[in-house]
Amino acid sequence: MKHPHTNEAQQELALRIQDSDREAFNSLFSMLWEPMYTYAASLIMNNSLAKDLVQDIWIDYWQRREHIEVENIKSYLFKAIRYKCYNSLRDTKFNKTQIDVADSICVVSEIEQEEDVLELSKRIDRSMANLPQRCQEVFRLSRIHNISNKEIANQLNISHRSVENQISFALRRLRKDLSIVKSMFL
After folding, report:
1. What is the average per-residue pLDDT within 80-97?
2. Alpha helices, DSSP H only, in 19-105?
3. Are 66 and 25 in contact (CB under 8 A)?
4. What's the CA gap between 170 and 64, in Å, rounded?
5. Is residue 65 predicted with pLDDT exceeding 60?
6. Most CB contacts within 10 A, which of 61, 80, 85, 185?
7. Angle separating helix axes 22-44 and 114-129, nearest 10 degrees
């Protein structure tokens, strides 16, 4: 029996899924759901939305299973989730700074190992944790809770300009920290 997490084993499952094998689908799902979710959550920084998007990818995969012929099913599914996350960020009318953040966080061009995804997610969390407290607070309100800069300024009793500065600072720091990560994935 091939090791279940190898590409070869996953390709075998993908071939069985093409023939509508639900058991194969469930096996592949249980292997790849969590790393895909971790990846999506690190891109859009919204856990419940990440779950929904990953769920959509799997539903779509099952519905189109007979027509999907790919050489690397894992790579196909990760590309699909990245594309879906980008569309979601675009469709939720994020401001320019937030789109920049999403771009700077989407540093993984190809993902082959679940460990890489988890490592990237941990790095993003560590980078966030190293930001000054107020900066973290502003950035999380903006990115995770999708609160407008104006609302954040009112809520924290600081100027609109200060909110923008904090987000820009967080963005620069993330870019700097993640550019180190980027080299690991190329």
Report:
1. 72
2. 22-44, 47-63, 73-91, 96-105
3. no
4. 40
5. yes
6. 85
7. 20
- From 111, 131, 133, 132, select the one nearest 181 (Cα to Cα): 111
Least confident of 5-14, 26-35, 102-111, 132-141: 102-111
- What six digits make up the tokens of 114? 């679940």
Q: Residue 95: which region, alpha, beta or left (left: phi > 0; alpha: psi -120 to 50)?
A: beta
Distance (Å, rounded) from C-alpha 172 to C-alpha 122? 18
- Spatial neighbors of 7 by CB under 8 A, at least 6 apart, are 72, 74, 112
Q: Is the dihedral of CA 11, 13, 16, 18 positive or negative?
A: negative
- At residue 104, does pLDDT exceed 60? no
Q: In this predicted structure, what is the pLDDT of residue 25? A: 93
What is the average per-residue pLDDT within 137-162?
Answer: 86
Please give the Cα distance from 2 to 8 (Å, whole number). Answer: 8
Single pTM value for the model? 0.53
